[in-house]
């Protein structure tokens, strides 16, 4: 059963934030075993950085507006959540954003600090119409793993908004297993993995790092070495992500008509190509805001529904 043939990792394509690699040859059945393990670790255990809170001068809540700004505060917050940071220093850091119009406010306008780099500086956050309009904000950036809901208990100052954070730098992982041969023996698997990141981590490095993490856990199982508290936390996070993936699969089978949503909301969603609960869960808040005839009240109802279903 053991594979005595040397296993190769071949980089088929590596272009910035996307890479395609082939791992071969693997004993029959191990393509899915190894591929699924690496995929789960990629999603759950790759460290990243994200905005966790924002304080904007002159506003008291997230549904407020800024004079002269094209977008309301809610849209600005959604845009800030899309800013991707490459962070080499530990712990939370507060960055300032101070812009006077008229101009487009972009991620590149965020204060530059050693150890923190904005990967998508051209991202437009909002537009200011004239010289009297301005945006002054303090943006808290932290590092972590996976998806972390907003901690409202940390919100103490008026105007400070805690945000949900998706720390994972992994955007998408696609795996494919095909048959391959070694000499005359065709009973082997070839695993192809296509990994897309947000640009803050090299996808080939992420695959190797995930394999290293798995190797560390398997070594502890092999030797009987005790797991540390950090190891147990990693396992809990991986199990949580696996549960979410299973819930997502079930959601793909639930059509919108089965949900407790107003008919008008369902019709607006269907016109936007959203037909199932799974489709709905795949859309970001920003995507929902772009759906015609879907107001803020409807979006709040949808987000509440997704949270109850464990899909937020």
UniProtKB/TrEMBL annotation:
Pfam families per UniProt: RNA_pol_A_bac (PF01000), RNA_pol_A_CTD (PF03118), RNA_pol_L (PF01193)
Highest taxon listed in the record's lineage: Bacteria
GO cellular component: cytoplasm; DNA-directed RNA polymerase complex
Matches recorded under Gene3D superfamilies: 5' to 3' exonuclease, C-terminal subdomain, DNA-directed RNA polymerase, insert domain, RNA polymerase, RBP11-like subunit
Residue segments, region Alpha N-terminal domain (alpha-NTD): 1-232
CDD domains linked to this entry: RNAP_alpha_NTD (cd06928)
Stretches the record annotates as Alpha C-terminal domain (alpha-CTD): 248-312
GO biological process terms, semicolon-separated: DNA-templated transcription
Family in the record: Belongs to the RNA polymerase alpha chain family.
Assembly notes: Homodimer. The RNAP catalytic core consists of 2 alpha, 1 beta, 1 beta' and 1 omega subunit. When a sigma factor is associated with the core the holoenzyme is formed, which can initiate transcription.
Protein name as it appears in the record: DNA-directed RNA polymerase subunit alpha
Species whose genome carries this gene: candidate division WWE3 bacterium CG_4_9_14_0_2_um_filter_35_11
Originating gene: rpoA
């Amino acid at each position: 059963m053991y594979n005595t043939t040397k296993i190769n990792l071949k980089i088929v394509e590596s272009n910035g934030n996307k890479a395609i690699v082939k791992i071969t040859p693997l004993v029959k059945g191990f393509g899915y075993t190894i591929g699924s393990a690496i995929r789960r670790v990629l999603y759950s255990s790759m460290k990243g950085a994200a905005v966790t809170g924002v304080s904007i001068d002159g506003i008291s809540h997230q549904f407020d507006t800024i004079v002269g700004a094209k977008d309301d505060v809610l849209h600005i917050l959604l845009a800030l959540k899309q800013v991707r940071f490459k962070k080499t220093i530990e712990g939370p850091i507060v960055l300032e954003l101070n812009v006077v119009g008229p101009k487009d406010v972009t991620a590149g306008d965020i204060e530059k600090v050693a150890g923190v780099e904005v990967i998508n500086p051209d991202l437009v956050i909002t537009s200011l119409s004239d010289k009297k309009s301005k945006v002054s904000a303090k943006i808290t950036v932290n590092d972590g793993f996976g998806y972390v809901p907003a901690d409202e208990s940390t919100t103490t100052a008026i105007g400070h908004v805690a945000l949900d954070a998706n720390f994972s730098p992994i955007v998408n992982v696609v795996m494919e297993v095909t048959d391959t041969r070694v000499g005359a023996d065709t009973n082997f698997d070839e695993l192809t993995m296509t990994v897309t990141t947000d640009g803050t981590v090299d996808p080939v490095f992420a695959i190797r790092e995930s394999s290293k993490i798995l190797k560390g856990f398997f070594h502890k199982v092999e030797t009987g070495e005790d797991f540390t508290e950090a190891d147990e936390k990693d396992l809990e996070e991986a199990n949580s992500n696996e549960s979410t993936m299973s819930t997502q699969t079930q959601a793909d089978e639930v059509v919108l008509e089965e949900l407790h949503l107003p008919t008008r909301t369902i019709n607006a969603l269907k016109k936007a190509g959203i037909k199932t609960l799974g489709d709905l869960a795949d859309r970001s808040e920003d995507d929902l805001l772009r759906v015609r005839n879907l107001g803020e009240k409807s979006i709040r109802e949808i987000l509440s529904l997704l949270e109850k279903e464990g899909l937020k």
